[in-house]
Amino acid sequence: MSKNKQSRDVSVPDDGADVPARFTDPGHPEYRPRQSDLDPAADKRAERQVVALFGLSVLGTVGFLVAYFAVPPGNTVASMRLSNLLLGLGLFLAMFSIGAAAVHWSKSLMNVHERSEDRHPLRSSDQTRAAAVEMLREGATDSALGRRAVLKGAMVSALVLAPLTVAVPLIGNVGADWNVSKLKHTMWRKGTKLTIDPSGRPIKAADVTVGSLFHVIPDGLDKTAHPLDEKAKAIVLLVRLDPRDLTEAADRKGWSYQGIVAYSKVCTHVGCPVALYEQQTHHLLCPCHQSTFDVADGAKVVFGPAKRPLPQLPIEVDADGYLIAQSDFHEPVGPTFWERLK
Amino acid sequence: MTTAASRGAAATADYLDQRTGVGVAVKGLARKIFPDHWSFLLGEIALYSFIVLLISGVFLTMFFVPSMAETTYHGPWAALNGVPMSQAFASTLRLSFEVRGGLLMRQVHHWAALLFMAAIITHMMRVFFTGAFRKPRELNWLVGFTMMLLGLVAGLTGYSLPDDVLSGNGMRITDGVASSIPIIGSYLSYFIFGGEFPGSELVPRLFTLHVLLIPGLILALIGAHLFLVFLQKHTQYPGSGRTDKNVVGYPMFPIYVAKAGGFFFIVFGVIALLAATMTVNPVWNYGPFDPAVVSAGAQPDWYMLFLEGSLRLMPGWEIVIAGFSIPLNVLIPAMVVPGVLFTALALYPFIEALATGDEREHHVLNRPRNVPTRTATGVSILTAFIILIVAGSNDLLATRFHLSINDITWTLRVLLFLGPWFAFWITKRMCLGLQRKDRELVLHGHETGRVVRFAHGEYIEVHRPLDDHERWLRVNYDAHVPLAIAPEHDSRGVRRKGYRRDVLRQRLSRAFYEDRVEPVTPAQLAAAHAHGEHDALASAEPTTAPSLERAPAGGGGDLTTREGHPSNDARNQ
Fold first, then answer.
1. CA distance B117 to B142
2. Is residue A125 scored above 60 in pLDDT?
3. N or C: which end of chain A has fewer CB within 10 A?
4. How many separate helices (H) and strands (E) can be counted in chain B?
């Protein structure tokens, strides 16, 4: 190689015969004395500093106790903040000063000559290993296991099966009824009134002006057995657009009412509430991962990690002009799961 | 002189020793030597944060009610008066505002958790970059790695206990991620939540995990971690007098009793200062959990940000096979990305050992520059981790700096693939450059700034040679060469078993060690000196430094040629 040739100048010295192949360890560097080793006054000064630091800790503890008794958190933000600040500063001084004192003591007053200790290989000696193997062999012979295959099989079976006594009841109960098909339905039914979250007041179509957004829950939510579970699936966003801006799929023509559309509020990505609405662009934004949906165009994804549009809730108005659902969502809401389409 | 106190101590010691033989332990431990370096404090910070977590955590359990039963708040925090909420949230408000010192303890607990994870990860970085995971410490690396994972789970479970809006949406994301797993997803979600999200079991379940199971496991692993440190003795940084056969430093008693014991109080004090002056997780501003509510700018704790960022960067891919849905937009960022990252971290010591083919015990640490490929790999992983963390804050970047969130997301998507490669390349070049700088220093000494003119008119700068200790630090390392393997066919022309595996291993080894800078040998130094100071400058310069530029682009090569190793590039064998 050409490189070998070029490096010859350096690596093959003329008088190289008696030069060792590698450098040798020069050994421990000499101890460099500290100020306090050389000057008794510095030593005394360091001692006074350590004492002062311990003293500061005592002051911190006293301060903490004074703050605890004399400065109650009270009822205002300012008083709570003050109480927290004073207690925290007291705790800081009490703890930090002990540490500073101990470290300063060790660095300036203790004997800090470096010492060396030998390491020994971790591996046990061949003799020890042989003895250990011999012991195991003896034990195995004593157990008489090698000659009794049935006994071995019975023992293994018993040990493998016994944990089922704990595992079966645990797994049986931990997922409640394990009825995962509930994920596919919500409490919306034909005729369920759309009401405002959280007041539960029904919404008249006439009250929904163009450009406005309503956070909606189904009527009767608080009378269900598990209101939070139902709410987590059934939350809806209601928007009224200028009907000219609205692009509707052929099979969904009858799902809106005079430009009013209702979509699931649960993001199809991982389920956060899609709560940010930009009126100018008709975009809904999920604040968790920024999936963006176009309300004017079937809530299709225009940006972000979500894949599917938000499911649409078909709506109509009842005889009194209140908005009601035509049915449940036509597909499961929320994040994708394995058997979602089954 | 025997005082009453010393007589009492002697009597106690005698009493204990007669019953436990504690004298053996004291004899073995009291003057045990530990090496000293600031970077060894990182692990200690993790340990002490954990102790602070236990102390403040016990305080919090006295007042926290782990229940999702509904209640209505009445108390000093006027903004939430009369609001329905879970008992978990209400008791969090009570312990923050009505229990004196409770708010401080909550803040201490949360800050300690943030510091705990930060210390664990920086400690892992220190261990990684200095090669402290090499034989015999591979098992302890795995123990530490497991604690890092447990720390993440401890953080996630604890952070969700107050049952506020922010953490509730975190749990909603957890549910979405669990549901995304093929076949078992929905059942896993039911397993976690005791039925549908959010259910009424979550907080009590998280509580048990958070205060019993996870800290118990962490405590046991800390025991194993420290036991192995005692057994194997601590690693030490390279330097004169320090070898793989000794340990140089200060005795446990009194130096480390004072230093390490004192450091616990320093860590506690700093956490207290953070808690006193900087509010963390003000759940009273977020409000109780409601599945319909979310706050803009939602962020998890920092150690979860990489997962959040990974979810944010992923494009919306989802596939349906035979009617079954597979949401790649969740599976890849939340399962595959951390899976690959964590598997790579856990296995790294074994991968490097395979490439090195080194069976020796190592107790002297590497200077990161002396193992360029490892250092570059570490920086590359960190770069990906940091890009994901930034991606987890893309909304804040967009609002604070008035940038388009779409642009930020697209930039980070590209950076996630380019950044780590660029970081790898530049780090490796920097390491090689630093090694060459070391060579130059050893060969030519320090610049003195003193310029001398010779009689014949030439100017040179006088260089001061390194002293023995300075030089030893720079020449005492192994530049591993790629592994050589036995030929494919043996002497009788029979194809040998295991050849394919060996070839793969050799390829790995080459990737690691093809580019390298060998330490200066005494012969090279003697040659540099024999030519006289200014001659050495002239002749040694082109042989060391420029050879890198000439290294073939595809394979690299031996950057300096060492005496006695004319062809230690494995391809020539």
1. 16
2. yes
3. C
4. 23, 8
Residues 493-552 of B with CB under 8 A from A: 520-524, 526-528, 530, 539-540, 542-544, 547, 550
pLDDT grade for A145, boundaries at 50, 70 and 90? confident
CATH 2.102.10.10 corresponds to the domain A184-325: yes
The pLDDT tens digits of the residues spanning A13-37 come to 444 456 788 899 999 999 999 999 9
pLDDT tens string A77-100: 999 999 999 999 999 999 999 999
Q: What is the C-alpha separation between B288 and A271, in angstroms, rounded?
A: 18
- Cα(A76)–Cα(A82) distance, rounded to whole angstroms? 10
Distance (Å, rounded) from C-alpha B168 to C-alpha B197?
10
Q: Which of B173, B252, B263, B278 to mutate to test the interface with A (most CBs of A within 10 A)?
A: B173
Domain boundaries, given as residue ranges, for chain A: 35-108, 184-325
Q: Pick out chain B residues at pLDDT < 50.
A: 534-573
Inter-chain contacts counted by CB atoms under 8 A, chains A and B: 390
pTM of the model: 0.91
Within chain A, where are the H helices? 2-11, 35-38, 40-70, 77-108, 126-143, 149-161, 164-174, 227-234
Cβ neighbours for A20, distance < 8 A, ≥ 6 positions apart: B522
Spatial CA neighbour of B121 closest among B296, B318, B375, B378? B378
Q: What is the pLDDT of residue B565?
A: 41
Distances (CA, A) of B208 to A176, B114, B152, B157, B525: 18, 21, 16, 9, 65
ipTM: 0.91
Residue given tokens 């595992």 in the structure block = A167
Tens digit of pLDDT for each residue in A261-278? Answer: 999 999 999 999 998 999
pLDDT of the residue at A233: 96
Is B259 within 8 Å of A102 when comparing Cβ atoms?
A: yes
Q: Which of A229, A239, A209, A234 is nearest to A219 (CA)?
A: A234
* pLDDT number for residue A110: 94
Q: Which amino acid is at A164?
A: L
Q: Is A119 on the interface with B (CB under 8 A)?
A: yes
As given in the structure block, the two tokens for residue A77 are 């933000």
Nearest CA in chain B to A301: B316
Residue A7 has pLDDT above 50, yes or no: no
DSSP of A206-268, one letter per residue? GG--TT-EEEEEETTGGGSSSHHHHHHHH-EEEEE--TTT----GGGGGGSBTTEEEEE-B-T
Structure tokens at B67: 């229940």
**φ, ψ (nearest 5 deg) of residue B491:** -60, -25
Strands A194-196 and B84-86: unpaired
What are the domain boundaries of chain B?
37-63+77-282+296-366, 436-572
User: For B37-63+77-282+296-366, which CATH superfamily applies?
Assistant: Cytochrome Bc1 Complex; Chain C (1.20.810.10)
Instruction: Compare CB distances from A270 to B173, B183, B265 and report the shortest one's residue.
Output: B173
